[in-house]
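re the bet — no i am not wrong, look at it urself. input seq straight from the record:
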Amino acid sequence: MNFNKIDIQNWKRADAFKHYSANIPCTYSMCVNIDITKLLKQIKDKQLKVFPVILYGIAHIVNLHREFRMATDEDGNIGYYEKTNPCFTVFHDETESITDVWTEYNENFKLFYDHYLHDMNSYGNGRATTSKPTQENNLFTVSCIPWVSFTGFNLNLQKGYDYFPPIFTMGKYFSDNQKVLLPLSIQVHHAVCDGFHLARFINELQEWAKEFIL
């Protein structure tokens, strides 16, 4: 997948990028509740799996905005991918361990869902930390903690100041005043993503969850 190297000298965000990546390296996270009431009803009516539907929604919004597709190449140059794919964790009850699997993003929901099922069938039962071979580095991470709802979540990455893709963590959805809410934590690098961009992402994901027709 095409990686577009950014010309730092002519990048409008150059000062902010240098400030938050070199002067004061900074990552941050935000935890929100996404209203999935209407979406969950459709999922149950069509007998679909919840996780890949939400996974598609996240991947869809990620691929709409360049700041969520940022990364560095093998030479350390900052840039962005034309498309990024979700890499997600699969939990194994017997060993209480996880495996990473990724699915290629497709704007067509049915195709994406089918690809997810195929990847789970082919690689979801693996026992290695990473099962499906990666072709490129155009991946972002999505994990799920379906056993508990949370109001805050934070990852501490040893090399987090050099990591620019977003990281998503879902919690257990719950009912509140006739609404069904899904906890979602999003961790980003401040060098490429400000509060404005994160808020826009959240608002668009919420709108997608309310309006999307399966």
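see?? The two ends are 28 Å apart (CA to CA). told u. also Residues 195-211 form the longest helix (17 residues). so pay up
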